[in-house]
Amino acid sequence: MFPALFCYVAIAFSQPVQGLRAMSADQVASSISDTIKQIDGLYASHFIRGGQEAAAAFGESIAKDVSSWESTLVNPEVSRVIAEGNALAALKVVDDSDICTRNWGAPCPSGWLKVGNAHCAAPVSYAGGCPRMQSFNGRSIALRLKFANDCDAQWPCARDCASGLDFDTCPVGWVDDGNGYCSSPGNGACLASYKFSAMSILQREELALVCGFEWPCRGTCTENFDAQCPEGWVNVGDDCLGPRNYAGDCDFSITTKGMSMLQKHALAETCGVRFPCS
Hints:
Layout (H helix, E strand, L loop, with lengths): L1 H12 L11 H49 L2 H15 L5 H4 L13 E3 L3 E3 L11 E2 L6 H11 L23 E4 L2 E3 L9 E3 L5 H11 L22 E3 L2 E3 L11 E3 L5 H11 L7
Antiparallel strand pairs: 1-2, 2-3, 4-5, 5-6, 7-8, 8-9
Helix pairs in contact: 1-2
């Protein structure tokens, strides 16, 4: 049973912490149990195919693995990460009502970008399962609340800056390490590095509250209607081809050749797209 335990611990705790909610005791027990069953099954398989000698050789290989796991677990840097991860998991899991008072009158969900006068575009990291382009004009608070719950897209906090928060970048004062990771320059109560791109907007809000950092305000954008295609669209000949996640009201292929600035502005409004910022 010991090899299974070492295997589980090494794998489970050597990975970066990516959220606030830890695994439940039942999940941990199930994972350990599954690992033990796999190793027991491998022992039996080696014994059936090669007899006691093959089973003994397999046992020696497991022992070598255990030795390498032990050296990993006693590594001071790994121990530090485990300790910080355990400390974070022990913190209170923040309920949404504890985070802030929501501004249900805001035109778009938190982190979403207002496009034109009527549409909202989801941030790059959005994975809530709903179309990435929405219009909330005329929707009641009840319908906005339903969207927030069904699509994992909460509305901004009343204290947020008027332009909204930019969750596609790193928190204020943090360093972008690439691949969705950001690292903190100071010694806070939480981990020094997180893969924020793997978190929902709500998880990022929770982490900011628990760890005491802030997200930057989203900057303003003056659209460049001299560009041939909307942002994220690809120019192919005289046409602009939309990305696979486009969920607006127009076709995936539009032609902007010969359009005036006013016509492109109308196109952006109708199709729920945005031209690149100038």
